[in-house]
Design a protein that fits this description.
Distance between the termini: 40 Å
Number of strands: 11
Strand content: over 45%
Structural class: mainly beta
Order of helices and strands: EEEEEEEEEEE
Length: 116
């Protein structure tokens, strides 16, 4: 059974930090690109960060310099380290695993709320 389980969300004040974790099971995560997306009610889900099988990283302009993405294939885990959080970072954050068609898996999401 393929599963992605996110954790680490919560309520923090502006300027604070959180680390989100995503643990994969049921598939060889080392062969997948891993990504973090976020979604606010009424808006489209947006890509926040991704990390490829070889460790190549991508960060969206809105989080560059504040967030980092990392992975440990031996632990089947990917993290999103978030610092200098802003109220506009408030969203449900989703973990995604992708291996060029047809493999695409999503977690259930974890809520991040940043108060002003």
């Amino acid at each position: 059974q393929v599963q992605l389980v996110e954790s680490g969300g919560g309520l923090v004040q502006s300027g604070g930090s959180l680390r989100l974790s995503c643990v994969a099971s049921g598939f060889p995560s080392s062969n997948y690109a891993m990504s973090w997306y976020r979604q606010v009610p009424g808006k489209e889900r947006e890509l926040v960060a991704s990390i490829g099988e070889a460790g190549d990283r991508f960060l969206s302009d809105s989080v560059k310099g504040r967030f980092t993405i990392s992975r440990d294939n031996a632990k089947n885990t990917v993290w999103l380290q978030m610092s200098s959080l802003k109220p506009e970072d408030t969203a449900v954050y989703y973990c995604k695993a992708t291996r060029g068609p047809p493999y695409d898996y999503w977690g259930q999401g974890t809520q991040v709320t940043v108060s002003s």
